[in-house]
Structure formats: structure tokens, C-alpha cells
């Protein structure tokens, strides 16, 4: 029997990249997958290709989470995967010296606020049964830092710590609700492509990128 047979699993930011791969694997394991993304067009296309359900979700918006809670009031697994690097619009300053406060906040709004709201939703969707699994996608950058992407590294480090807090809180309440963070290294997905564009500028750009990722 598939390991996730009949389990309801919500995956955020799952239109492509790691989120899509998670949604596909969950579906293969028999889960009832709710694929969410801010991009309604690609999200719906991806869900149709996998054979699962799509719901539009901007993880920064509390109202969107409240709407999801009404549509999907019970969940067995929630994967908080949605995230940005801050380079989606091109290469801008994200080092500790030159990053703007607005850019810093934008990255944290998606990566950290989105994960906070996702964990809060997950607890509400799991506590009646007293069991479940919350999986937060952090990053290796949240462990070692990254000089030219300070906001991204900071937000991913905070996700790791918040995951521990959520796990402890759930244990304190007597619920068997797990909360873990996952820390991938560099993976060639659409979210990384703008940063990896530095590689295409030549040998100097490649070495610069290689150093900050190691």
C-alpha cells in the first residue's frame, strides 16, 4: 500500500521546482494532494498534469490562508515550500552592506511570514486529530550563510529555528504533530536560475557564485 494512501497533503509553491517534485511524489504515494501556488496559470497546469487539486495561495496573505482553511479544514501533511531568493526580477544588491530594507522585507515576507502562516494553518488543520506532519523547506544557506543573498540566508535560518519552536509547542500540547525543516543545497530550479545567471557572465562570475554556494 502506498505510504500516503488517503492522506491529505498541502504543498505550497508547488507549480514548479522542488514543490512540484514533492507534489508528484506525494501523489504517487497515494496522497490527496492540494497543490498551491501564487501563479494561478502554471499552478493549475501543473496540478492537471499531476492529477491533483489546485488552489491559488499567496503565502504572504493571511486572508488566503483563512480561505484555504475553509476549503481544506483538515490536513495530514503540510509542506511549506513557497519561497523566493530576491533575484526574481534580476540581479540586485542583496549583500549585508547594500541591500535595501524593502528588498530584505520582501524576501522575509514570502519565506518567513509565509512559513509562519503555513505552520499556524497546519496546526489548526491537524490538532483535532492530534497528529500530522509539518515540513518546512529551509536551505543549506540557512546553516552557512551566503554573502550576496543575506535576506535569503537569514529567512532560511529563521525557518529552521521556527520549525523547532513549532515542534516543541505541539509536543507541549500533547499532540503528535511533527515539525521538521529540510535543508537542500543548490538545486537547478526556476527559483535559483536568476542567481545562477551569474555563472553565465564568465569565469569570474562562476567563481564568485561557486564560492558563496560552498
Overall number of domains: 1
The number of helical segments is 8
- Under CATH, the topology can be stated as Rossmann fold
Radius of gyration: 17 Å
Sheet with the most strands? 6 strands, parallel
**Which term fits the overall shape?**
globular
How would you sum up this structure, described in words?
- With 214 residues, the protein is of the alpha/beta class.
- It has one domain: NAD(P)-binding Rossmann-like Domain (Rossmann fold).
- It is built from eight helices and six strands.
- Strands 3-2-1-4-5-6 form a six-stranded parallel β-sheet, sandwiched between helices.
- Strand 2, helix 2 and strand 3 form a beta-alpha-beta unit.
- Helix 3 packs parallel to helix 4 and helix 4 packs parallel to helix 6.
Task: Name the features.
alpha/beta, 214 residues, 8 helices, Rossmann fold, disordered C terminus, 47% helix, globular, 6 strands, 6-stranded parallel beta sheet
Give a short overview.
This protein has 214 residues and is of the alpha/beta class.
What is the fold's blueprint, element by element?
Layout: E1 8-11, H1 17-28, E2 32-37, H2 40-50, E3 53-56, H3 62-71, E4 77-80, H4 101-126, E5 131-137, H5 141-144, H6 150-172, E6 176-182, H7 193-196, H8 203-213
Parallel strand pairs: 1-2, 1-4, 2-3, 4-5, 5-6
Amino acid at each position: 500500500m502506498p505510504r500516503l494512501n488517503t492522506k491529505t497533503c498541502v504543498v505550497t509553491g508547488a507549480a514548479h521546482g522542488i514543490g512540484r517534485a514533492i507534489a508528484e511524489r506525494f501523489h504517487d504515494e497515494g496522497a490527496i494532494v492540494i497543490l498551491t501556488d501564487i501563479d494561478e496559470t502554471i499552478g493549475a497546469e501543473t496540478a492537471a498534469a499531476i492529477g491533483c487539486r489546485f488552489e491559488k495561495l499567496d503565502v504572504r496573505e493571511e486572508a488566503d490562508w483563512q480561505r484555504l482553511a475553509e476549503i481544506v479544514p483538515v490536513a495530514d501533511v503540510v509542506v511549506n515550500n513557497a519561497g523566493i531568493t530576491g533575484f526574481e526580477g534580476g540581479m540586485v544588491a542583496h549583500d549585508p552592506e547594500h541591500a535595501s530594507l524593502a528588498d530584505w522585507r520582501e524576501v522575509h515576507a514570502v519565506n518567513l511570514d509565509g512559513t509562519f502562516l503555513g505552520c499556524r494553518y497546519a496546526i489548526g488543520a491537524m490538532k483535532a486529530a492530534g497528529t500530522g506532519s509539518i515540513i518546512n523547506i529551509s536551505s543549506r544557506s540557512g546553516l552557512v550563510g551566503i554573502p550576496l543573498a543575506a535576506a535569503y540566508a537569514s529567512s532560511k535560518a529563521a525557518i529552521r529555528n521556527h520549525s523547532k519552536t513549532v515542534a516543541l509547542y505541539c509536543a507541549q500540547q500533547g499532540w503528535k504533530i511533527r515539525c521538521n525543516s529540510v535543508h537542500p543545497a543548490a538545486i537547478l530550479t526556476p527559483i535559483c536560475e536568476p542567481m545562477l545567471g551569474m555563472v553565465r557572465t564568465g569565469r569570474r562570475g562562476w567563481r564568485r557564485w561557486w564560492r558563496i554556494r560552498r
